[in-house]
Amino acid sequence: MSEGAGHLSPVADGPWAGWLSWKDTAPGTFLDAIGTSYSRSDAPGEATVMLATRPSHANRLGALHGGFLASFADHACFAALGAMGRPEQAEAITIDLNMQYCGSGGIGPDLRAEVELLRETGRLMFMRLTIWQEDVLVAASSATVRKASAPK
After folding, report:
1. Which of these, 89, 56, 87, 88, lies nearest to 71 by C-alpha position?
2. What is the extent of the structural domain holding 56?
3. Contacts made by residues 142-146, CB under 8 angstroms, sequence distance 24+
C-alpha cells in the first residue's frame, strides 16, 4: 500500500469543503473506475459517503450498472470506516457483500451511501448501508469485513 493510503484528509474548498477524501487516490487501480469519494461521520458508528456519477458508471440502458453499485458499496464501507476514525482498516478485507437492488439510478446526480457499523468483534466488523440518489433508494447492502492485522 502506498504512503498516504487509508489516511483521509479534510477537503479545504469547493463543494466538498469540510468532508474527508483520501490523500492517495491510488492511480492506475480499480479506484479510478469508481472515482473520488467524500465522507464524513456525524455520529459514532455512522458515516455518509458521497460519489459523483459519470457516464462510465452506466449500463447499456443508461442506468447505473449493478456491478458499479456493488463496487461503490464495498468502497463506501472502507471510506466510512476512515471517516469513523478507523483509517487503519483501509487494509481490511471484505469477507462477504450482499446487495439488494431497489431502484434504478441514473447518471448525473451524486450517490449517497449511508453506512452503519452494526457490530464489531475481535476480528470482524458487520456493516450495513443504503445507497440513495437524491431521495430515491437505489440499493441496500450488508458486508462482513475482516479487520486488518495489527502492525507487528
Report:
1. 56
2. 8-146
3. 142/97, 142/98, 143/73, 143/74, 143/77, 143/94, 143/95, 143/96, 143/97, 143/98, 144/94, 144/95, 144/96, 145/77, 145/81, 145/89, 145/92, 145/93, 145/94, 145/95, 146/92, 146/93, 146/94, 146/95
Q: How many domains does the chain have?
A: 1
CATH number where 124 lies? 3.10.129.10
pLDDT digits (tens, 9 = 90+) for 5-47: 457 899 999 999 999 998 776 778 888 889 899 999 989 999 9
Q: Is 151 inside any structural domain?
A: no
Residue 118 in any domain: the answer is yes
Q: Report the predicted TM-score, pTM, of the whole model to 2 decimal places.
A: 0.91
In a domain, 3, yes or no: no
Retrieve residue 104's grid coordinates.
434504478
pLDDT band per the 50, 70, 90 thresholds, residue 152: low
